[in-house]
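Our preliminary data section would be incomplete without showing what the modeling component actually yields. Below, a chain of 296 amino acids is followed by its predicted structure, encoded as tokens that our downstream tools consume directly.
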Amino acid sequence: MNAAALHRAAGLRSGAEALSGSLPPLLAEARHLAAALLMGAHGRRRAGMGDEFWQYRAAVPGDEARAIDWRRSGRSDAHFVKEKEWQAAQSVQIWIDAGRSMQFASAPALPEKRDRARLLALAVAVLLIRGGERVGLSGDTLPPRSGSVQLLRLSAALSAAEANADYEAPQANALLPHARALYLSDCLGDPEPLRAALGIAADRGVEGALVMLLDPQEEAFPFDGRTVFESMGGTLRHETLKAGDLRARYLERVAERKALLGDLCRAAGWQFTVHHTDASAAAELLWIYRALERRR
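Predicted structure:
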């Protein structure tokens, strides 16, 4: 990683630490206290349900050699990791849309959508890891782990993630069964990949939260007269002399997209919200905090 990337990673972590510092560590509410004690950082040292064998899973890049069950792996051509119950129950996997559309900010004083998403994601990771949980990314590049070193890995990975396409599809194939997940995206692309990802999550018993991030301009459509609309990647371009005539239809489609996303999340057992980049990051972090601790 070059010096510029390291500087961005350090700045991102510093901002996330400051944002999360006003909240307590992510612990379950009173009804989850017993389970938290068994499966948290101290509970893992005790015998009980938190230390029971749960399943074998295929090893992915990033797994440590000591995590490999060599006896089970010796019976096949693949490597397997022996997971215990607490590892699945206390794992949270995060996906941030790295598409070019997430680079949009309508004013210099506003953060880009991707920067707000990264800040929220890392702040949540700080809270989760302080609470003894394991956090990783939803793909196979960074499996869930605990500890302060994982925060550095997450910070570096989130700072470097970028896609060439205007919109990116979520990665759900590496979601751990019965874990939790957090998706942050503007959700302006084709909704079908997201529908498929939420279907996979539901099949695996993964509960989570979807945050739709929008710039206030994308919500209000304050355009009139001659306007040129162009995607961040330059692949889409539309010029009109009467932008005001498009406002009603645009707002209708935004409302339709929100309704669709809400329906998809309800069907999957997920929580859904819309966050604007001119709104309080701390308030949104609190919503995510509560959404991720809510269990059916």
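The two ends are 41 Å apart (CA to CA). The domain at 3-24+85-293 is CATH 3.40.50 (Rossmann fold). Preliminary results of this kind motivate Aim 1 of the renewal.
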